[in-house]
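User: Hello, can you help with two protein structures?

Assistant: Certainly.
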Amino acid sequence: MPNIASLLKDEITRLCRKELRAQLDPVRNASAGYRKEIAQLKRRIDQLERQGRKLQKQVPPAQGQSIEEDRKLRFVAKGLVSLRKRLGLSIEAFAKLLHVSPQSIYNWQTGKTTPQRAQLEKLASIRSLGKREAAALLNAAD
């Protein structure tokens, strides 16, 4: 005759597994459903982002606003030095052209500070100037 303790142990194990299965099956099904829903939402987000980019390309810029203004202006100290030298201007003359102090130009060139948004916009507009135009602006400022 088998041992009663081992039979009891086997029966308890069987009942526990049965109960666990009954408790875990709905959780597994819900988890699978959530994963499917998340995948669908990700696909939908990708689709909407593609649509948004396509529409963004079709929309003309607002009045008084150019595409260049939409771009983020960035500042590089070496670029400032090369711009100043290309225009053939001293630090003082370049500062006068931008309506800032020569110390600000020096600090920008050495990378100690960076220009504020208003100065970045002025710098962006000066990039397209030639030597003669820069000299004319300086003479007009005097």
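That covers the first. Now for the second protein you mentioned:
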Amino acid sequence: MDRREDLLRSEDRGWVDLRSLMDAVSPQEMLEPGLTAERWSVKDLLFHLGAWWAKAFVMLERVRVGTYDGKGEAATVDELNERFLEEGRRLDLATVKAELYSARNQALLGFGALPEVTPEAEEWFRESGPEHYEEHLDDLRVWVGTLTSAG
């Protein structure tokens, strides 16, 4: 199995886990704060994941066309996360889900279009997909468990 295929399979496993947990949460429960210590909701998490996928797509395109310079933007990860949180909270749940699915699909297509998987492309893909899912899945598992035991 080549590296690209391995990364795509890893992303798919994380996506299946994420979707399974999302399916266990009602639309109303997705809006309730408490998923994280920072009082994120599931909706906040979904927008966060989608925003990073969208950013990854841009960076993967830059890698593909040879303009990637190793720089994203002047904002730090924490500043971007805060901006994404504010942006996502202005949107309804259906829009947030649509943007997540769209951004993920675009990034998957962008990753597949690369003539080769460079270290930079691999890093953007891993950190926006499989590693990012893993970073947040435990919070989501606990949240779903709390909802299940309360209901």
